[in-house]
Amino acid sequence: MRVVIDARLRTAPEALVYRERSKAPAIIVTTNANLARARRKYERAGVEAIAVNTRDGELALDELMREFGRRGWCNVLIEGGAKLAGSALAAGIVDRVAFFVAPKFLGAGVPAIDGSHARELTDFTARRVGDDWLLEGRLARVKQSKTVRRKVRTG
After folding, report:
1. What is the CA radius of gyration of the chain?
2. Is residue 104 located within the same domain as residue 145?
3. How far is CA 103 from the centre of its chain?
4. Are residues 19 and 3 in the same domain?
5. Is the same domain home to 137 and 155?
6. Are both 60 and 94 inside the same structural domain?
7. What is the pTM of this model?
8. Cα–Cα distance list, 74 to 53, 67, 70, 96 (Å)
9. Containing domain of residue 31, as a range?
10. Judging by DSSP bridges, how do beta strands 26-31 and 2-5 pair with one another?
């Protein structure tokens, strides 16, 4: 399954992700407001269009994961830029991370993750893949203080 998360429908129907020689169907995920337009725009490319609600201007990724669960999908690889990575972390849908690091300096560059999401990793591994390094780990559970737990229970 190939899924493109595109709230503004900026991905062209002719994009390689939709034309790849693959038996895996493609889905575009957008906002409820753009669903009808998405269906018209991507119908010829054979792409299914689905929509999720938005929260604070962002697609509700937790709702998207529930939809995937209804379809029987248990594992999802989220591959994208800093904004998508930050949104996924903020939505609480990430349990494992993987980063490739190349032995090159690229100048100032862009952040790998948008926002501030300082989290500890467990089961951390680093292994060489060709000239690059693959860094992987599981997100450690966030420990709630007793005050936060009490507020959750009572209110």
Report:
1. 18
2. yes
3. 25
4. yes
5. yes
6. no
7. 0.78
8. 21, 11, 10, 13
9. 1-76
10. parallel
Share of the chain above pLDDT 90, in %: 54
CATH of the domain at 144: 3.40.430.10
From residue 1, how far is each of 23, 24, 28, 86 by CA, in Å?
9, 5, 11, 23
The answer on pLDDT for 153 being more than 80 is no
Same domain? 69 vs 87: no
Distant-in-sequence, close-in-space partners of 5: CB < 8 Å, separation ≥ 6: 29, 59, 61, 64, 80, 84
What average pLDDT does the structure give for the chain?
87
Over residues 53-97, the pLDDT tens digits come to: 999 889 999 999 999 999 999 899 888 888 898 899 889 999 999
For 10-36, b/e burial (b = at least 16 CB within 10 A) is ebebebeebeeeeeeebbbbbbeebbe
Q: Worst-scoring range by mean pLDDT, 44-48, 105-109, 111-115, 148-152?
A: 148-152
H or E element that contains 153: helix 146-154
- Neighbour tally for 68: CB within 10 Å: 19
Q: Tell me: the pLDDT tens digits for 16-31?
A: 998 887 888 899 999 9
Query: Which tokens in the block code for residue 155?
Result: 């209110």
